[in-house]
């Protein structure tokens, strides 16, 4: 007798019941009752809010949503983009053929030679006048020696 009463008592709590009472106005169509109405939000009815909301919706449709990301997130995204670009460049270099690699090496050597020539010219232009005259005298001396031979 005791154990069966305990299970009935526990089952009564497990059955879901409506805790809130049903409102009277749903069943009765009594015209004397005041029906509840949704309250008006003064912010949403304001003209400024409506204009702003319309503009935000239009921008979102166009894909011009405002960027409200924190600066740290922006920096991390930029680093990730840069890293992806760098990886793509490395993959592209790995895929280059032997001919392309050899041509790049030659191009780099030529650029180095041009830089060295430019440095020599700048050094000669920036050299003092007596060094330039001495160089000219040597050249003329060598030319005279060649002509005499």
From TrEMBL:
Residues 75-97, 119-149 are annotated as: Disordered. Keywords: Coiled coil. InterPro entries: FAM107 (IPR009533). The keyword Nucleotide-binding does not apply. The keyword Coiled coil applies. Pfam families: DUF1151. This is Family with sequence similarity 107, member B. It comes from Mustela putorius furo.
């Amino acid at each position: 007798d005791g154990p069966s009463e305990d299970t009935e008592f526990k089952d009564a709590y497990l059955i879901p019941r409506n805790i809130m009472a049903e409102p009277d106005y749903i069943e009765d169509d009594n015209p004397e009752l005041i029906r509840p109405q949704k309250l008006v939000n003064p912010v949403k009815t304001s003209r400024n809010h409506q204009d702003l909301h319309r503009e935000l919706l239009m921008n979102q449709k166009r894909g011009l949503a405002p960027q409200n990301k924190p600066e740290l997130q922006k920096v991390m995204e930029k680093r990730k983009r840069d890293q992806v670009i760098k990886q793509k460049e490395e993959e592209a270099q790995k895929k280059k053929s032997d001919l392309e690699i050899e041509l790049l090496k030659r191009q780099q050597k030529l650029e180095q030679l041009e830089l060295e020539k430019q440095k020599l010219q700048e050094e000669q232009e920036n050299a003092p006048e007596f060094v330039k005259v001495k160089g000219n005298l040597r050249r003329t001396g060598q030319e005279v020696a060649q002509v005499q031979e």
